[in-house]
Design goal:
The protein is an alpha+beta fold. Helices cover 47% and strands 18% of the residues. The protein has 14 helices and 10 strands. Helix 5 (149-162) runs antiparallel to helix 6, helix 8 (205-216) packs across helix 9 (224-231) and helix 12 packs across helix 13 (285-296).
Length: 308
């Protein structure tokens, strides 16, 4: 059981490409909030300055990539001093119809800034301590890429495919970007103490084993005592260590994860409410429906009909 794979699969990670750019100075744009999404910008050529949620500007050069995990509003510009109009007005002014290259300015094309811009989304109501621990932004520099050949190869392939103009390039880049997102996490590119702790939990000899048990068999009648016994720790030390790394107790984590699994099953399987309740560890459909409604404000049946 690969816990990270199960988390991202259950939360329904999906990539989407929204444009590639060719910006000639002067240029700037304010990208609005996108709730429930993670945005990214990969610099293929030129220089871009990025400021997330009003923070300091970060200089990005060729090969650098910025990931904004919670889709916070941010500014992109060729110079930090530029006035940055909203993205919507920039698209309107450029006459961009959602296809092909987004071009701005009439400057030297060899001195322009070329970006690949996209985002990742998760299932409605998707939640996990991993998502909550992600920082406001993560920057992958060309120097960092050089130390991670696999990630570097993937990003080079993204750029080549996107600018090749070949049939299926956008679809290929979308799939590749999903792999890049997973690789960034699994390689331990850490931007916060909380994220580092969770990544450590996946690899911890005891807590990692407990997580694999919970994720592989969420319907089991787990208790703190039983999990502690399975992994060879005392009850108190297990509960303390689990909370230290994950940020919540084992039973709270299990309860939340069962509901996340139920979202996926309601959307993707044909199992009855009773079957899904049993598969996710509830003693009855009524108990499942109460827990689901309390957490998401909607009944399981209503969610299945309209998973938004």
């Amino acid at each position: 059981m690969d816990v990270l794979d199960d988390i991202l699969g259950t939360l329904d990670l999906k990539g989407a490409l929204y444009f590639r750019t060719d910006f000639s100075a002067p240029w700037a744009v304010t990208v609005p909030d996108l709730s429930g999404a993670a945005r990214f910008h990969l610099v293929v050529q030129g220089v871009c300055f990025a400021s997330v949620a009003g923070g300091n500007f970060i200089r990005l050069g060729p090969g650098d990539m910025i990931l904004i995990p919670r889709g916070l509003s941010h500014v992109l510009a060729d110079d930090p001093g530029r006035s940055a109009p909203p993205l919507e007005s920039v698209l309107t002014r450029a006459g961009y119809d959602g296809n092909g290259l987004l071009s701005l300015g009439d400057g030297d094309p060899e001195a322009s800034t070329q970006l690949i811009c996209g985002h990742f989304t998760f299932r409605p109501h998707a939640d996990h301590p991993l998502l909550g621990a992600l920082p406001d932004h993560i920057v992958i520099t060309s120097a960092m890429r050089a130390r991670q050949p696999w990630l570097d190869d993937m990003l080079r392939l993204v750029a080549r495919r996107m600018f090749s103009g070949e049939m299926g390039s956008a679809a290929a880049v979308t799939r590749l970007s999903e792999i890049v997102f997973i690789e960034m996490l699994s390689l331990g590119i850490r931007g916060s103490d909380g994220l580092s702790a969770i990544l450590d939990a996946f690899q911890d000899h005891h807590i990692g084993k407990a997580l694999r048990l919970v994720h592989s068999r969420p319907g089991e009648p787990w208790t703190v005592d039983r999990l502690a016994s399975e992994i060879g720790m005392s009850r108190s030390r297990f509960a303390e260590r689990f909370r230290e790394l994950i940020g919540s107790g084992p039973m709270a984590y299990l309860a939340d994860w069962r509901l996340q699994k139920s979202l996926a099953l309601l959307e993707k399987s044909r199992g009855s409410i009773q079957q899904i309740a049993a598969e996710t560890g509830y003693q009855s459909p009524a108990a499942f429906s109460r827990a689901f409604a309390n957490r998401f404000g909607i009944t399981p049946l209503a969610y299945r009909k309209n998973p938004e």
